[in-house]
Amino acid sequence: MTSDGQVASKLAIQELCARYCHLLDSGDMDAWQELFSSAAVFEVPAFGWLAQGKEEIPAFIRKILPFEFGDFKHLPSSHAIEASDDGNFASGMLDFQFVALNQQEPVVAMVGYYTDEYVKEGQQWRFMRRCIHPMMVGSALTNALAAKGAL
Questions:
Q1: Which is nearest to 130 in space by CA: 30, 61, 28?
Q2: How many CB atoms are closer than 10 A to CB 124?
Q3: What is the pLDDT of residues 47-73, one digit of tens each?
Q4: Which residues are paired to 78 by β-bridges?
Q5: DSSP class of 143
Q6: Buried b vs exposed e over 35-65: b needs ≥16 C-beta within 10 Å?
Q7: Contact 49, 64 (CB under 8 A)
Q8: pLDDT per residue as tens digits for the range 91-150
Q9: To 5 degrees, how large is the angle CA 23–CA 8–CA 74?
């Protein structure tokens, strides 16, 4: 049976993941950076991308982000979370679509899923590891990444 603490943790982690999308999509990188623990890892193994540390992750995202802020939207779904018994760690899997809004019409640029590790620091849940697993990468994203020299 799930405890009240685990339910509260799962809700807080869902909020963390929603804020990740909203803050990144809007370009509020200072607030977005605060969603990560100091030793966080962000990676996309399919592209060979890895950033380590809360300070490095936003700079890395700016370097590889193929679109201007406001020109894309994250659409997450199907979030599954497993919280530890001690209430300080959790892991999760979250499906997503990444939609490019700067085309003639909205285009699905990527479909995939995240595998995450979360840590509770004080009263705040933060990302300890976020790994993106692309399952489909559309030409709008591939072309934009290639033009930026990120592939």
A1: 61
A2: 12
A3: 899 999 999 999 998 887 766 656 888
A4: none
A5: H
A6: bbbeebbbbbeeeebebeebeebbebbeeeb
A7: yes
A8: 999 999 989 887 677 888 889 999 999 999 999 999 999 999 999 887 777 777 777 677
A9: 25
